[in-house]
Amino acid sequence: MKESQITITTPPIFRCPISLDLFQDPVTLCTGQTYDRSSIEKWLSLGNLTCPVTMQKLHDLSIIPNHTLRHLIHQWLLQIHQFDPFSASLSSLKHTLQSNESTLHNKLQALEEINALSDEYCFFNKSCFLQLGFLPLLLEQVLDSQNPISFTELALSCVVKLLPLGFLHPLDILKEESRFQKFLLLFEKGTISIKTSLCHVIDSSSSSSSSSEEVCSKLGSSQKLVNEILLLLHHQNCEASAIKAISALCSCESNMENLVRAGAIEEIIMKISGSERRKDENLGVLGMSIVEKLVGLNSGKEGLVKSPRSIKGLVKMVFSFKACDNSSEECSEIAVGLLLRMCEEEEDENGREEAIDGGIVTQLLLLLQSQCSNTTKAKARKLLKLITSKWV
């Protein structure tokens, strides 16, 4: 049953106001309006700072998962799929993966078909995978130590496509120590493709539920895992996955000290301050938000002050935004705010000297002559006054 053949009418409340398609990952803005995550992220990435429906100015760019609406949609889809013959063919694929009598070749064919169906069919049919329990099954297949790398890569590809559509309880599988150790081993020994997919799994562990918080805390407690994620920042086309995984780990406060000890602050700053950052300015904002959060810890602030590379990286970002690019200006504002916080402390004389040597005065003067916001300019003036007062 392809999308063009479906005649079921979707309730208006289940459609994204931007794409007009059925919600896949509903999220809510500070205005109370709900949109599909991919649609609203694209809207914000274009520099829009208003709610598309109400046109109210967004005082907070946070987007909150709408679990209630997602649950209602899944209940509605479950009723539809009770009469959907497509479910029967998926049951056959599930049996192939579960059966001990299935050969590796047959299982690979099943995975290839699942992967193709995830792309070809509409969200109505995609949700069948979840209703039939494919997500926990695929995760079990991934964490089966007997499967070859090629099988694991394909199974993870299927998992990544289903994660945005499902609830997070299938990740409870990682609470089992043997499965958790296999997860760590895959991250350490796996291919770049496997590591990137595992970052998506980690990203999905970020939630307000106590169950997902437990999984997230367990993941972030592994220094080896944190180190492996930070190493991914240096691989081309893996930066986004790595930063999103780090952001997910930051959602659990118990992980933050571990990230600081691993050198996450310096690694992220150096990555964002590089020329590659301009490929995805929104990724820069996410990375800088992580740094801002980690520097809020005493250990994080101390780590920043003791890192000349981090300070010079922040200085470089002070005047790095482009006109009419709100996301890149936000990076500049965060950089100025972090340097201001550092320089306000009397004992941070070394940090001030590093900032001055890095050219902070010139950067601030250029920023003050730009078209940045009044808030950013106010912080820049305060920082400039604080720095120049040391020369008097």
From TrEMBL:
Query: Its domain of life?
Result: Eukaryota
Does the keyword Transferase feature in the UniProt annotation? yes
Give the record's keywords alphabetically.
Answer: Transferase, Ubl conjugation pathway
Q: Which InterPro entries match?
A: ARM-like, ARM-type_fold, ARM_PUB, PUB22/23/24-like, RING-Ubox_PUB, Ubox_domain, Znf_RING/FYVE/PHD
| A molecular function (GO) term | ubiquitin protein ligase activity
Q: Hey, which pathway is this one from?
A: Protein modification; protein ubiquitination
**Listed SUPFAM superfamilies:** ARM repeat, RING/U-box
Q: What class of enzyme is it?
A: transferase
Q: Which Pfam family, any one of them, does this sequence belong to?
A: ARM_PUB
- Which BP terms from GO are recorded? protein ubiquitination
The reply on keyword Zinc is no
Domain named U-box: which ranges?
9-83
Question: Where exactly are the transmembrane stretches of this chain?
Answer: none
Tell me which EC number(s) this protein carries. 2.3.2.27
Q: What does this protein do?
A: Functions as an E3 ubiquitin ligase.
Q: What is this protein called?
A: U-box domain-containing protein
Species name for this entry? Senna tora
